[in-house]
From TrEMBL:
Enzyme category, top tier: oxidoreductase
Alphabetical list of PANTHER family matching this protein: BETAINE ALDEHYDE DEHYDROGENASE, NAD-DEPENDENT ALDEHYDE DEHYDROGENASE FAMILY PROTEIN
Any GO BP: cellular detoxification of aldehyde
EC identifiers of the protein: 1.2.1.19
Species classification: Eukaryota, Viridiplantae, Streptophyta, Embryophyta, Tracheophyta
Organism name: Clitoria ternatea (Butterfly pea)
Active site: E171
All residue ranges annotated as the Aldehyde dehydrogenase domain in the record: 14-166
Record PROSITE patterns: ALDEHYDE_DEHYDR_GLU
The protein, known as: aminobutyraldehyde dehydrogenase
Keywords in alphabetical order: NAD, Oxidoreductase, Sodium
């Protein structure tokens, strides 16, 4: 018998909350971001899980809900059952792997959908930890399966497998540039746009760039676990920052 959706998601959220510091440290080590940022990501993961736990309570309440019929000698109930196996291909996101993974699986776990999730070969350790937690709180074996590998090795076979449900849902990315006008505090904006694209009014473009460079030189670049770290390490030697800079 499948466990209660509500109890399953609440237990899953409780485990993440209990192991927040442990998971945050692993996330910082795995993807190079500062420990403070990693712990903030865990707050997002917990919030996402709590949201779906509330939805699960609604689903539990609707299971075997009676349907009113005009004939007294008939009884009708609503029974919600899982759909077919779903293949999830998580984005190659080097900075927020845990958030991307958890938000992808949380809504499907509460529905007991069979999942085969492909994740890239970088920074997947916390994702495997979350999968372990799912098993610990009662998700039946085989419901969630994590496949690590490159696209042609893992993603393509999952996408083309005959047992995978074929409707497609896509999350498309983008940089969403911030537009900077003349009447803003350039120091504050320089810090808040440091990790995003920005467009500036021509009259302040040079000054804005100077403030941005000044802020970037002032931050602490160190081991992600060191106190005060704002910029940690890259994920792998293959992540060539200089090549990326030359494209911009």
């Amino acid at each position: 018998m499948l466990p209660s959706l509500k109890l399953l998601e609440r237990a899953y959220t409780g485990q993440i909350t209990e192991k927040k510091n442990e998971l945050g440290k692993l996330e910082a080590i795995d993807c190079g971001k500062s420990l403070d940022e990693a712990l903030a990501d865990l707050d997002d993961v917990i919030g996402c899980s709590n949201y779906y736990a509330e939805l699960a309570e609604g689903l539990d309440a609707k299971q075997k809900a009676p349907v009113s019929l005009p004939m007294a000698n008939f009884k009708s109930y609503v029974l919600k059952e899982p759909i077919e196996v779903v293949a999830l291909i998580t984005p190659c996101h080097l900075h927020w792997p845990l958030c991307m993974f958890s938000s992808t699986i949380a809504n499907l776990i509460i529905c007991h959908v069979g999942l085969s999730c492909w994740h890239v070969i970088y920074n997947f350790k916390t994702c495997l930890e979350l999968a372990e937690l799912c098993g610990e709180v009662g998700l039946p074996p085989g419901v969630l399966n994590i496949v690590i590998g490159l696209g042609h090795e893992a993603g393509a076979p999952l996408a083309s497998h005959p047992d995978v449900d074929k409707p497609v849902s896509l999350e498309l990315g983008g940089k969403s540039p911030i537009i900077v006008f003349e009447d803003v505090d350039l120091d504050k904006i320089a810090e808040s746009t440091a990790l995003a694209a920005s467009l500036q009014i021509e009259s302040i473009a040079t000054e804005f760039l100077n403030r941005l460079v000044k802020w970037a030189k002032s931050i602490k670049i160190s081991d992600p676990l060191e106190e005060g770290c704002r910029l940690g390490t890259t994920v792998s030697e293959g992540q060539d920052i200089m090549d990326y800079q030359s494209m911009n």
